[in-house]
Amino acid sequence: MAHHFRREPDPVFFVSPRHGPQTRPKKTAALDLIVQLRKQNHSVYEISQILKEQQRPLSPTAVREVLREEGFAALPRRRDDERPLAPRPTVEPVADVRSFSLENRKFFTRCGGLFLFLPDLAALRVDTLAEAARLPGSQMIPPAQALRSALALKLHAIERKSHIMALVADEGLALFAGLNAIPKRSYLSEYSCRITPRQTQRLLAAWHDRALEPKLWDGASFNLDFHSAPYYGKSPLVEEHYVSMRSRRQPSMLVFLAQDEKSQSFCYSNADLRKGEEADEIFRFIAFWKKAHGQLPPHLVFDSQLTTYANLAKLGSMKISFITLRRRSPALLKEIYALPRSAWRQVELDVPTRLYRTPRVFEQCVRLAGRPFRQVFILDLGHEEPTIILTNQLHATVESLIIRYAHRMLIENTLSDAVRFFHMNALSSAVGMKVDFDMALLVIASGLYRLLARRMRGYADAQARQIFRDLLDLPAQVEITPEEVRVEFHRRAHLPIVLDSELCQRTVEIPWWEGRRLRLTTYTGR
Q1: Cα–Cα separations (whole angstroms), residue 316 to 78, 302, 309, 391, 407
Q2: Do 225 and 303 touch, CB atoms closer than 8 A?
């Protein structure tokens, strides 16, 4: 700038801005009609639609700007008889258990697949979970009905509470919950705000008590991980965390999840976390598991950022085995690359489908936080940089350590499935309690899907979204009689797998159906 000022006779430092168009041909052409329609008590949306029909389209926002410039205030709320004649939503009944009826009738439901969960819900006495957790309720919607209504959203892959309005007239969904009608979105959103983190933990503890008999979890080894559910609103209460799907830090709710390694189902969740509490969350899970099952979890697998070295030493003093990764610091990388070739030995992994089956390893004993650990350097495992495994299992083979940590990717796959099918990232509020209750429902729903998958031939290891797509997204005809409720599924490609399962070979008494039994069969078209 100084150079130009000294050498140019007439320097230009401030460029005159070029103004945009000074006329508004679309708004000006429609001005008289907009004013005329507003004087006839039309809303901005109705005016926008009329303009569109007359080939003079203007958005509702543009119409609102024109009316504001002309001095018109916002239109007061009108009664139904003051509105123009147009299709309007039907008035659906208010959810009230006192109006719940099991009179003889037939009806069609889009949610026929939900009835496949009822045998497990009855056997596990899930209707008593709400009482054990002391969840809130009312005379119109008791706690058990409220919990089943919220759980139905998870099981049927309904993304947000507002999306329940598309199924609010479905009698099958209401029958599943034990109500005359499914609660509306306002109730479901408000209900989760009334549940405290302590009630959520009691709900998970009660779920563990019910799931002991079918042995839902093997309990021999667990995968642990954090998940950041992104939040796109503006709230000072929501802290920033790293969101892997966005590869950046942004406002999000931090969730801790534990997964049973054998069954691949979640067994614990906690979204009531703040910054600085992440490293100690592993001990809250350990305390929860010990209280629920009477023993410490024997084996844990997690990544390098889940906890600290001091906590690893504490795990060793508690006699809990673990496998984790160590971060690749410049000093460690320098040490690895300085090792002579003769120091490495080659091992073979007994995984026929794996591409990199013969990595090179180097073992050593290191002391961290005042306690010795076993450290394994690994090369040729399919990564550009070496992998560093840290464990307190001194007698396990290197091959078993590598294979077991590779199985930790199961929780990554399950988290991906939960994001896409159970909609973990579909936050409806910045209130952490709502997310905490939603994660507890995720734990229960994932367990119910695993129990159902065990009964379906060929689906024992399938992910929830595949099970729903093939086996549960079923319309059905429901017939209620004095003795039973008959659910007749419409024909689908995978329906023979459902009919061949034990669920269709017997009837099950459902506690909230006044002694009636559930019978699952195929629709005959009568």
Answers
A1: 69, 15, 11, 9, 22
A2: yes
Sheet holding 517-522, edge to edge: 105-109, 476-480, 484-489, 517-522, 508-509
In sequence order, the β-bridge partners of residue 291 are none
Predicted TM-score (pTM) of this structure: 0.83
Question: How many angstroms separate the CA atoms of 178 and 142, rounded?
Answer: 10
Residue 52: phi and psi, rounded to 5, are: -65, -40
**Rounded Cα distance, 128 and 267, in Å:** 19
Task: Name the one residue in this structure whose structure tokens are 């999000």.
Answer: 252
Helices and strands, counts by H and E, the chain: 18, 15
Tokens coding 259: 């997964």
Question: Is 470 a residue whose pLDDT tops 50?
Answer: yes
How are beta strands 371-379 and 360-368 bridged, if at all? Answer: antiparallel
pLDDT, one tens digit per residue, over 403-413 is 888 888 767 77
> Tell me: the pLDDT tens digits for 380-394?
888 888 999 999 998
> What are the helix (H) ranges across 165-250?
171-177, 185-193, 197-210
State which H helix or E strand residue 487 sits in. Answer: strand 484-489
Query: Following CA atoms 379, 381, 385, 386 in sequence, which dihedral angle do they give, to the nearest 10 degrees?
Result: -40
Q: Which positions ≥6 away from 256 have C-beta within 8 Å?
A: 224, 225, 226, 268, 269, 270, 271, 273, 278, 281, 284, 285
**How many residues can be counted in the chain?**
526
